[in-house]
Amino acid sequence: MSDVTVDLPARKSPAAFRLQGLVVPGAIVLVWLAAVDSGLVRGPLLVPLHDILTGWLLDESGREIWPALGVSLLRLAVGFAIGGALGVAAGIALGLSRPAQQAVAPTVHAVRQITLFAWIPLLTAWFGNGEAAKIAFIAIGVFFPMFVNTEQGLRTIPAIYREVAFVSRLPLWKRLTKLILPGALPAILIGVEVALLTAWIGTVGAEYAIGTGRGVGSYLAAAREQFRMDLVLVGVLVLAIVGYALSRISGLAFRRLIKWRAR
Amino acid sequence: MAGALMSLAPSHPANFALSLRGVGKQYEVDARPLQVLRQITFDLRRGEFLSIVGASGCGKSTLLRLIVGLDSEFDGDIQISGEPVRGPGAERSMVFQDHRLFPWLTVAGNVALGLDGVPLLAAAKRERVAELIDLVGLSNFADAYPHQLSGGMAQRAAIARALVSEPEILLMDEPFGALDSLTRVYLQEELLRIWAKRKVTVIVVTHDVEEAVFLSDTVLVMEPRPGRIESVVRVDAPRPRDRASREFTEIKGRILGALRR
Amino acid sequence: MTAAGSKIQAVSQAIAGVQMRAAPLSFDSLSARAGRLPAGVGASVLGSVSRWATPLALPALLLAAWQLVAGAGWMPPQILPAPSIVVATFVDLLRSGDIVAGLRISLWRIAIGFAIGASAGLALGILLGVSARARAYLDPLLHALFAIPTLGWIPILILVFGIEETLKVVIIAKAVLVPIVLNTSLGIRNIPPAYLEVAETLRLRPVTKLARLVVPATLPTIFTGLRLGVSSAFISLIVVEMLAAAEGVGYMMTWGRTLFQIDIVIVGMIVVGLIGFGLDAGLRRIERAVSRWSPTDV
Q: 3-class SS at B228?
């Protein structure tokens, strides 16, 4: 192939690029429609495309995804608020005081090594299978990235901010809001981007693992238990789409806020 | 065939190391053609030292890339000793403004790359590499890595890499542009020493007119939009060139004047 | 502008106008001045002791408090077993071979999953890196598939593969594949064009180009992909073991939870934390060694 080279990039028209990208997915869709939707090939897992695309609208169990999504997002918001507030607070507190940082940060980083999902058994033992365990799980998932990024943000505040903060004998509160936070803001926002995605996966994960109550995760668990591949796919699509939307939104917000700051 | 060769006209491309006839190049920018080079025609004799000077945008670097073969789309003819150019070739080597030594290889390793396609025994290659490293004055640094070298030393290594394959034509694109003026003067003198020793044909693209007059037998003055030859200036001053002499200053002034037009 | 705001502006202008003073100001130097130690050898010994003692102060305090609370019976052992019990359980599980057996299964799954995911990832990544056409055809599809987190693949693949070993290996392989494909493709596309031009003018043979340019130039980025792959493998291993397994380190915690033996759960968490840390730290060290030259510094 003439294009197989570890070579200098060639120019290509963007329109052709987009068309080529649709060829493979398009072919898969066509094959699927021809084989499965038509009834030619059957199987418990071979779900007609039609069902997947309309399940969330027409199917009685399928429609459950909407209230489930709402509940999940609500949980996400609560868990994010708690974990985020604690993470930023801890990051600022340790970022301001070197002795405190030396004493506390290593412990936090050590606990951070325990991968998030490993907390589920402990949390369900402490809080049972209810909301508290799920919210706590999400909050832990949000806490660590927010803490790490805030702490780092404080460490790398541009020198001019720090010098002004020191020399101007403003009260701590003013110093915090006018100088320190704006200086650390980019890093904190990056923490938000990361934490948001972790929080969403954590939300659905907790719901899936704990199983009780409503939510996208419970929806997935139920669908799987009933061997309804069509509903599983609906749930997974929602999981992926919301995750993607959250990254895009936080990315855009990040760029907007940074642009505003640079003025 | 031999008989035909012997009766060639003096201006036939086969008589020259490098021959350009009506070379042109255009790009498409926003769906409109942009002519970067137009009707470049000149000949270069074997062993000659040519400099190409011109303001930014006059296409001198583009011209060099066409000659070395990095770009094969152009109008007109480029011939090396009568053979049309078809991509890069063993008889042409290039030195870039940034030395482009591979950071994970030593100086010796980098220079050895120049002999990659050459059919020599390993021992012979090692000897040649050592010879070139010695020629550019880096014998004590053969096993050093690029990050351990100064800018001037790295550029010398790049020159060694380009010359190790014994090319007929050495092309250099603003080779000393990134260096401080003291190093530049030193390397200009080194380059002349190497040129005299290896008797290779050299083309240097530079924006430094004094450098061009110091180094070359001929200076090609180019002007932009579209890139074309404004004039050809022969530097008849005897070598070694005296930068302070009246002759030198006069030629330099002539070229600067041509550039300003 | 507020009073504080204008004061800040005035002060920052004053600082910008004044020439540099001796020591750079920072929160660090403030604290140092506050807690000044006496000069001399004694101070340096004290200094180095306090440097590694300080991080241990908090954990020691927490452990003591934990032991107190649990020992006094304020918390039932089903909720918070005392540290002494946790340690005893740890030793028991080690001696009985449970931890070792669990580790063996888990590491085996990671190994197989990583082997499959990494080879597929490298192959696909190389293809995407060198061929613009492959990128054009495959990028959108892969983008969409990679957007589905590993968690999302679990219910799908359980329906396809059941909950046998295949499931775990496939999940781990998928988790490994994504960062490796992305980093390999990126590494190849980021080979500085300047070096590729040198390779062209020197007319390097394909083998030489591969061995002396492509591999060294892409190695740092590819290795980062491998490190992220290992990290993803471990995380997805725990997830899948907790949700759909009967053996392994992840399962150990679920098992402890079912029996309401929180000491086993905590032991499991500590083991998970240690392995995760060890893997990541070890690979980061190798990554630093491999990245000694950055191809971006042309």
A: strand
* CA-to-CA dists, residue C246 to C153, C168, C242, C253, angstroms: 20, 11, 9, 11
Is the CATH number 1.10.3720.10 carried by domain A62-262? yes
Q: What are phi and psi of A170, to 5 degrees?
A: -85, 155
Question: C204 and chain B: CB distance < 8 Å anywhere?
Answer: yes
Q: ipTM beyond 0.95?
A: no
Alpha-carbon distance of A180 to A156, in angstroms, equals 11
Q: For residue A184, what are its two tokens? A: 């650390």
Residue B242 phi, psi dihedral angles, 5° rounding: -105, 110
pLDDT in tens, chain A (263 residues): 334 445 444 455 556 657 788 888 888 888 888 888 777 777 777 788 777 777 777 777 778 888 999 999 999 999 999 999 999 999 988 888 888 888 888 899 999 999 999 999 999 999 988 899 999 999 999 999 999 999 888 887 767 776 777 777 777 777 777 777 777 888 889 999 999 999 999 999 999 999 888 999 999 999 999 988 888 999 999 999 999 999 999 988 888 877 766 65
Query: Per residue in A158-190, pLDDT tens?
Result: 677 767 777 777 777 777 777 777 778 888 899
* Strand partners of residue B42: B20
- Distance, first Cα to last Cα, chain C: 47
Burial B184-204 (b: 16+ CB within 10 A, else e): bbbbbebbbebbeeeebbbbb
For B124, phi then psi, to 5°, come to -65, -40
Chain segment B58-99, per-residue pLDDT in tens? 889 999 999 999 999 999 999 998 889 888 999 999 999 999
How would you class A152 by CB atoms within 10 Å of its CB: exposed for 0-12, middle for 13-18, buried for 19 or more?
middle
Backbone angles phi, psi at B65, to 5 degrees: -65, -35
What tokens were used for A195? 């934490």
Helix ranges restricted to H, chain B? 2-6, 60-68, 107-113, 122-135, 151-163, 181-198, 209-215, 246-260
CA A52 vs. chain centroid, Å, equals 24
CB contact under 8 A, C55 and A107: yes
Cα(A236)–Cα(A232) distance, integer angstroms: 6
The contacts of residue C287 (CB under 8 Å, 6+ apart) are: C220, C223, C224, C227
Contacts of C191 in chain B (CB under 8 A): none
Backbone angles phi, psi at C96, to 5 degrees: -75, -10
Query: Hey, are the CB atoms on B89 and C203 less than 8 Å from each other?
Result: yes
Instruction: Count Cβ atoms below 10 Å from residue B76 Cβ, excluding itself.
Output: 16
Interface chains of chain C (3 or more CB pairs under 8 Å): A, B
* Alpha-carbon distances, residue A240 vs A153, A216, A245, C147 (angstroms): 30, 11, 9, 6
Nearest CA in chain C to A211: C243
Domains of chain C: 91-293 (1.10.3720.10)
User: B177-181 — which CB contacts under 8 Å span 24+ positions?
Assistant: B177/B97, B177/B206, B177/B207, B177/B208, B178/B97, B178/B98, B178/B151, B179/B151, B179/B152, B179/B155, B180/B151
User: C199 to chain A, minimum CA–CA distance in Å?
Assistant: 10
- Kindly state the greatest CA–CA separation across chain C: 79
Domain segments of chain A as ranges: 12-42, 62-262
Nearest to A14 by CA among C138, C136, C193: C136
Q: Does B96 touch chain C (CB under 8 A)?
A: yes
Q: Do B104 and C202 touch (CB under 8 A)?
A: no
Residue A4 DSSP code? B
Q: Do C205 and B116 lie within an 8 Å CB cutoff?
A: yes
Instruction: Scan for tokens 């130690």, then name that residue.
Output: C37
CA-CA distance, C260 to C278, in Å (whole number)?
29
A107 closest CB neighbour out of C31, C58, C238: C58
